[in-house]
Every structure is written in C-alpha cells, then in structure tokens.
C-alpha cells in the first residue's frame, strides 16, 4: 500500500527452506540407517560364528575325554602295536590337542566329518541320509503341538478355574511327568498291535522301501513328487504315532506357556477397557489379548521344535525310525566317535539356527526390539 492508500501486487515466493531441510535430513539419515543395518548384521553373524565355534570346541573336547579309544574302534582290540600306532598317526591323534582342534575345525567347515566305523561311509553322507527322517517326524510333531496346544492354552486362560482349565493343566503336567519311552510303548501296544489304527515300527512297509528316489529325503514330499500316493499314505500311516507322541509333549509345553502368557494379558487394563466398551469376547481374546503374546510364543515354539529335533533319540529307538537319533544311538554302542561327534554337531547347529531364526522373527513382529 502506497501513500495514496492503493494496494499494489506483491509477489510471494514459496519458502523452500523447510523442504530443503527435510530432504537434507532424509539424505543424512539414509547412510546412518544403512550403517546401523550393517552393524546389526555383522553382530548377528559374529554371534552365530562364536556360538558355532563354542559348539565345535565342546563336541571336540568331549570326544577326547570320553573313555573310548577311536583307534581301537578302527583297528580292533587284537591289532598289533605297529598297526595301532600307524592308525593313530594317520588319524592325527599323535599331534598336540590344540593342533587337532584346528584340524577338526577345518575339516568340519569343509564338510568332512570323517568316516563312520558303523557304516563304512563318510559321516556327512550318513547324516544327509538320516536327518530328513528326523526333520519330517519333528515337523509334524510341532505342527500338532502348535495347532492343538495354542488353542488349548488360550481357552484355558479365558476359562480360568473351570473344569476344562483344570483338565488342560493336567495334560500339561502329564507332558512333563510321563516318560517318552513308556508313552511310545503303550501307543504301539494299543494303537498298532491291538486296534491296527496306525503303522508299526519303521518309516514304510518293507515292500515300499526303495521305490521312491530320495530327492529331498522327506518321504512325504518325495512320494508326491513321484506321484506314488500309496507310498504317501503308507508313510503318513507310519508317521502318525511317533509324531503324535512327540506332538503330545510339544503341545503340553506350548499349552502351558500360552495359558501363562494369556493370563498375564487378560489381567491388563486395556482388556478391561475393551470389555467395558462392549467389544465381543472373541475379539477381546484373539485381537487384544492374543496379539501381544505372539512374540514370546514364537520363542517358545522355536525352542520346542529344536527340542523335538534333539530329543527324539528315545522315540526313534522305540519305533525303529531311521533318523539321526537312532543313528546316534547305534554309533554310541559301536564306539563310533566320528559319527557321534558329527550327529551331535548337526543337532547343535540346528538348535542354534532355530534359536536365531526366532530372534529374527521376534524383531520383525515387535518393532520395539529392533
């Protein structure tokens, strides 16, 4: 406005300072995020490497302190002294313990677990053959445990103090108290020998053995790939009982932990607020109370799965299951230390892998843990 009171057009230019600042901040944050990601990834890899190195050390030194002479297991008790010493030198047992340990690390990292005395084959080849059987049985067992155990725990918590809650708690206690070998033997006697509802010991009936090429090692998948539905249902028939026994112990633990987690959430104020607002009980339980427990529940399921993989020795022995547990038992009886150490190392590595996978899923589902 000039002195005569007239308005003059004033050109206003947009202020780009704020946008420039935001853009600069975004660009400066990008390298920081990448650096934090790389730092976290490096820490994760370092943790896994150190854990695996500790596992290698434990298996190696335990193998050296047990009262079993691996040389005698190869040459026999009646071998001459010269043959014994030659075998000992060839196996590298004449070298210092620390040197043997570094040789052991190099061999394991290259996939060389030594030769098995029991089978006469490389231990690595044996483990590739037997581990899928254990993986298949434990996977079906954990599926049973999750599908049955999680709803049981949720229902027990939502009906705290009811008759069903007491019954589910009894099932959880039985999962801790009942010995696995007893439950397996009773299952065989009742459901196989008496009722004929399930298949007996072994992975397949004998006339189906060897008819399917082991593409993945998992007989259910390989039979479907080959289009052999008869073999698929026969394998499922044999898997039903041992997987159900493992699944029972898994669901008992998962149901008990789910109930504990849910009771803690149902006592929170936000659940009471949702109920006061008239939210349907089903939504209160599954949307408001169950959602926060998914993160700790993943850890429980992961540890339970790893426990099934490493604790199936007794079940595999009872059901003559050709898995890593049966292989480990046979190796122990035959003083086959290469096979024992190799099987122990594989089970430990799987346990580490599942534990770390649970940590990753934990961070994905819970942004606060990132």
Automatic annotation (TrEMBL):
MF-aspect GO terms: dipeptide transmembrane transporter activity
Segments crossing the lipid bilayer: 37-62, 137-158, 170-193, 235-255, 297-319, 339-362
GO cellular component: plasma membrane
Major place of residence: membrane
Assigned keywords, A-Z: Cell membrane, Membrane, Transmembrane, Transmembrane helix, Transport
One Pfam family per UniProt: BPD_transp_1
Record localization: Cell membrane
SUPFAM superfamilies per the UniProt record, alphabetical: MetI-like
Residues annotated as domain ABC transmembrane type-1: 131-358
Membrane topology summary: Multi-pass membrane protein
Family in the record: Belongs to the binding-protein-dependent transport system permease family.
Protein name: Peptide/nickel transport system permease protein
Biological source species: Pseudaminobacter salicylatoxidans
Organism ancestry: Bacteria, Pseudomonadati, Pseudomonadota, Alphaproteobacteria, Hyphomicrobiales
């Amino acid at each position: 406005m000039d002195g005569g009171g007239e308005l003059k057009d004033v050109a206003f230019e947009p202020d780009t300072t704020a946008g420039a600042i935001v853009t600069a901040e975004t660009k400066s944050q990008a390298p920081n995020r990448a650096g934090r990601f790389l730092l976290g990834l490096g820490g994760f890899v370092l943790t896994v490497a150190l854990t695996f190195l500790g596992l290698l050390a434990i298996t190696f030194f335990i193998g050296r302190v047990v009262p079993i002479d691996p040389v005698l297991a190869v040459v026999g008790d009646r071998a001459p002294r010269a043959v014994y010493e030659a075998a000992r030198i060839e196996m590298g047992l004449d070298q210092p313990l620390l040197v043997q340990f570094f040789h052991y690390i190099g061999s394991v990292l290259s996939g060389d677990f030594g030769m098995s005395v029991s089978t006469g084959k490389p231990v690595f080849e044996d483990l590739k053959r037997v581990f899928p059987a254990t993986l298949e049985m434990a996977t079906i067992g954990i599926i049973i445990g999750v599908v049955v155990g999680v709803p049981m725990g949720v229902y027990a918590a939502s009906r705290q103090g009811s008759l069903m809650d007491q019954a589910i708690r009894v099932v959880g206690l039985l999962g801790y108290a009942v010995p696995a070998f007893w439950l397996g033997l009773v299952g065989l006697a009742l459901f196989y020998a008496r009722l004929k509802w399930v298949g007996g010991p072994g992975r397949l009936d004998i006339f189906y053995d060897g008819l399917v090429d082991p593409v993945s090692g998992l007989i259910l998948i390989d039979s479907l790939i080959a289009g052999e539905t008869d073999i698929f249902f026969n394998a499922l028939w044999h898997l039903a009982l041992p997987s159900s026994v493992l699944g029972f112990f898994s669901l008992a633990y998962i149901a008990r932990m789910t109930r504990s987690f849910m009771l803690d959430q149902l006592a929170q104020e936000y659940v009471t607020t949702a109920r006061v607002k008239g939210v349907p009980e089903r939504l209160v339980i599954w949307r408001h109370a169950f959602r926060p427990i998914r993160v700790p529940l993943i850890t429980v399921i992961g540890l339970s799965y790893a426990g099934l993989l490493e604790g199936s020795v007794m079940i595999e022995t009872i059901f003559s299951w050709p898995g890593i547990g049966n292989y480990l038992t046979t190796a122990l009886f035959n003083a086959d230390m290469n096979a024992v150490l190799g099987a122990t190392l594989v089970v430990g590595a799987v346990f580490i892998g599942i534990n770390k996978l649970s940590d990753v899923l934990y961070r994905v589902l819970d942004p606060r843990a990132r």
